[in-house]
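QA checklist item 7 of 12: single-chain prediction sanity check.
[x] sequence parsed
[x] length recorded as 258
[x] structure emitted
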Amino acid sequence: MSSDSIRLICNPFTHETLHLSDTSEGPVLVGDESATTFRVRDGIPILMNSANITNASQKSRRYYDAVAPIYAFTQSVYYRLNGGEAESRQEYLNYVRVKKGDRVLEVSVGNGANIRFLPKEAEYFGIDVSWKQLVRCKSTGACFGFEVELFQADAEHLPFVDNSFDVVFNVGSVNYFEDKSTAVDEMFRVAKPGALMVIADETEKAASSHNKLPIFRGYYNSWKTPVEPPVDELPSDAKNVRLTESRSGMYFSLQFTK
């Protein structure tokens, strides 16, 4: 982690600033006020704990840790059957307008596949609940020539100070969030004034279709209400709100600015 990156990090539960300290057990991030410590493992700060994350986040962590070894392969097969990966991802990444020098946060970065298709002349940060997906993301960056600062954290408790990012986006996970309103508020909080935010995921039409597949059935059956884009969860001062659909109504993209 660079010194510039450390200045952006905060305790995700209290928002106090953190500083890096070396200990006999390795580097840790320490709260300036509470002396709370967060472990740094293989260069990735662990800024979450089971006591403070939702049941849905814990469930997602277990699921994606389990499928991480085969996730990239299954995604490649899926995209090969649906028109190609670059073309499919660009349907929502076209709304993620990254400029040279931008500081960009992907919430639920997974194995880093989206960043592969974004301009490299930007500064990328990614958070995810799944440790094994973060490890895969490091490998993806090394393979495809992009750098990303990674953090193990959950969307409802982002470990960054206010007004930090020029672009914030989330793809394919908002439907899993237990507290969508808090997650959207957190994305809004860490975005700079005027920043672009994009939230994309599958619609109810797609969820109903995937419910027939055993690998997804446990997730979709756990939802008590139909899947809807989180338009009603946007802060009242969100601007330039736009909702679009693609793939015959199977996917939505919600775009707005701060």
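[x] summary fact logged: Residues 55-80 form the longest helix (26 residues).
[ ] second reviewer sign-off
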